[in-house]
Design a protein that fits this description.
The complex is a heterodimer of chains A (299) and B (321). Chain A is mainly α and 299 residues long. Chain B is mostly helical and 321 residues long. Helix content of chain B is 70%, strand content 1%. A two-stranded antiparallel sheet of chain B has the order 1-2. The chains are: A mainly alpha (299), B mainly alpha (321).
Chain lengths: 299, 321
């Protein structure tokens, strides 16, 4: 691709453009820096232990085998944490969207009495919060510690997402449309359900992805709130204990004498946890870009 | 928001004359469905955002588990006096500021450079493929980034160290020695955010009038000259706004980023305010002290954000509020 565009420039200018080559080169290097770490980890996860121990694997697997992946799928606790992550992310995204829509629609109506007051109540949370300890004590008082609800309920309201939703509703739904629906006798519930929601599909998709990817990737609250009940660890937290802290060993069958190098297992764990994101990445990228631009309008 | 609400009021006044004089019951009857909808998010915000703020009183009490939050004794500012004397606290404040300022120096400038370079690429396909690759790290969790970092930068068997050794160099303790750790931390931050950070700049570059470039070409400006004298001044507004916003968050810190990259060998720079709050509060159970540290951070953060907003407005920007 580089040569093609280079050739075009050369033909137009009839000379070799040094800057063009340099710029393409720098961009290419930066992209490779983002791509190659994954290639390396994937190569490692597919390699035979001996080559990895000898530090011989770089970007291409050596002695290809799927043993490490077999071990992951045999490890009940990893599958369990994957399952927890799926449940938490799904419930959280649904709840988050309900809350966001319920707040954004009324606040986007200019005629709502007390609109400024309510907006302030919601937006103030962007700038000040109780912080880690008071939140921890609240979760404790509500009896949510060591339950999946500690990862679903507290972060379900996001002022930032509300801002995006509100801005989008204000700019995309013309007030005349709403007015004509009112003249036809539709109430606010009806207008929201039959007009506003169908017209806001793109922003709903974008924000759902914001919620879902954010929840899937976060581990701070799980680290704080899920200590004893190891069955409820989401995938990221499980990965933290397995790979980063390495305080926990893989559940290998007791009879089996393991010669496996944990490095290979670690690499395959990373691939296993990254795969869901990588699989949907090509489809969600454009929604994220749109969301980032919408969010930047205000905020 | 200010502009919007002013506009909203005008519109309202035009469309519904006399609306402001109506009684509250009129609005409640007309818009009761809207208020019902608002109850759901309000309940969540009150319980999960505002209720914890009352827990901040712990910073002025000596918390005793048996007595509970409200039964514990008031001690005024004694808890603050106590933490200000602790070397760990001083170090946490220093580290938070140090890491954020260095981040500002590198992670903030890199997207600007990258956006300027991406803008020079003519081939749409080349640009799109590279953008997709550059955005990728933004979508990964810090745990995964940390795990990959150890796979690449580990001293014993990290791939980059293997390459260095293969080329005849010595293995570098990228993540196992304090200063090296600091540099790796910053580099990983740049790696994670450089692509995604270009989005806003590219958007504001795309709104530059093409005639400006044509005029510059006629005047004999080369590529670098146009980059410097046309593109850069045109995105100055975006740069300044984002810079001010970042300065407003200089006391914040990402717990997840530090925590997934730290290890026992590197403690000099890894103690930041959120890490200290976690360690003192949740790990050691010293809730009063940890709450005080959190309040210290939140209060300074609020002041800084409000200041940043004021400055942004002075400079003619929209502001953040």
């Amino acid at each position: 691709m580089k040569t093609v565009s280079g050739a075009l420039v050369v033909r137009r200018r009839r000379r070799f453009d040094f800057w063009d080559v340099l710029i393409h080169g720098i961009i290419l290097l930066a992209s490779l820096a983002c791509l190659l770490p994954f290639v390396h980890v994937v190569a490692k996860s597919l390699s035979a232990d001996a080559y990895v121990i000898a530090n011989k694997v770089f970007l291409w697997p050596m002695g290809v085998n799927f043993e490490a992946y077999g071990k992951i799928f045999a490890d009940k606790s990893i599958l369990q944490s994957f399952y927890i992550s799926v449940i938490v992310t799904t419930l959280f995204t649904i709840l988050g969207m309900i809350i966001t829509i319920c707040a954004a629609y009324p606040l986007s109506r200019y005629t709502l009495k007390g609109r400024t007051f309510f907006t302030f109540i919601f937006m103030f949370t962007l700038f000040f919060s109780g912080g880690i300890i008071p939140e921890y004590m609240l979760i404790n008082d509500l009896g949510l510690l060591e339950t999946i609800w500690s990862m679903i309920l507290p972060p379900a309201f996001s002022a930032f997402n509300l801002l995006i939703m509100k801005t989008s509703l204000q700019s995309s739904i013309p007030e005349s449309l709403e007015e004509s629906a009112r003249i036809d006798g539709a109430g606010h519930f009806r207008i929201l359900w039959s007009i506003v929601l169908p017209l806001s599909r793109p922003v709903i998709a974008t924000l759902s992805l914001f919620y879902a990817v954010g929840r899937w990737n976060a581990y701070q609250d799980a680290l704080f709130y899920i200590k004893q009940n190891t069955d409820l660890r989401p995938l990221q937290l499980k990965l933290y204990y397995l790979v980063i802290q390495a305080s926990e060993s893989f559940q290998l069958e007791a009879t089996q004498v393991s010669l496996s190098n944990p490095e290979v297992l670690k690499a395959s764990c990373v691939v296993f946890a990254t795969l869901p994101i990588l699989l949907i990445y090509p489809f969600i990228q454009k929604y994220f870009v749109q969301g980032a631009l919408l969010g930047a309008v205000k905020g | 928001m200010k502009v919007e609400s002013a506009l909203g009021k005008n519109e309202t006044a035009l469309k519904h004359p006399g609306l402001n004089k109506k009684r509250l019951t009129y609005f409640l009857r007309r818009d009761w469905q809207l208020y019902v909808l608002l109850l759901i998010p309000l309940a969540f915000v009150l319980v999960f955002k505002y209720a914890p703020m009352s827990g901040l009183v712990l910073a002025f009490k000596e918390y005793k588990l048996a007595k509970g939050v409200w039964g514990s004794e008031w001690v005024g500012f004694q808890v603050f006096m106590d933490i200000f004397d602790r070397p760990d606290f001083i170090r946490a404040v220093r580290n938070t500021l140090l890491l954020n300022l260095l981040d500002l120096l590198f992670s903030f400038t890199m997207p600007i450079i990258l956006a300027l370079l991406l803008n020079e690429i003519k081939s749409v396909k080349f640009k799109r493929v590279n953008q997709s690759l550059l955005y990728l790290p933004h979508f990964l969790s810090w745990i995964i980034i940390g795990a990959i970092a150890y796979q690449l930068l580990g001293e014993g068997n990290g791939a980059i160290n293997n390459v260095i050794e293969g080329l005849g160099g010595n293995r570098v303790p990228f993540l196992q020695e304090d200063t090296h750790w600091l540099i790796s931390y910053l580099a990983i931050g740049v790696w994670q955010s450089m692509g995604w950070g270009t989005i806003l700049y590219l958007a504001s570059i795309s709104s530059i009038n093409p005639e400006m470039y044509e005029a510059a070409t006629v005047d004999g400006a080369g590529r670098l000259r146009k980059m410097w004298n046309v593109t850069l001044p045109s995105i100055r507004v975006t740069i300044v706004t984002l810079l001010i916003m970042n300065l407003g968050r200089i006391m914040d810190g990402s717990f997840e980023r530090i925590y997934s990259l730290q290890n026992k060998a590197t403690t000099e720079f890894t103690t930041t305010i959120p890490v200290l709050v976690y360690r003192w509060g949740i790990e050691s159970g010293n809730f009063s002290r940890a709450t005080a540290v959190g309040l210290f951070q939140a209060a300074i953060g609020l002041v800084l954000v409000l200041l940043a907003d004021r400055i942004a407005k002075k400079l003619g920007q929209d502001g953040l509020l």
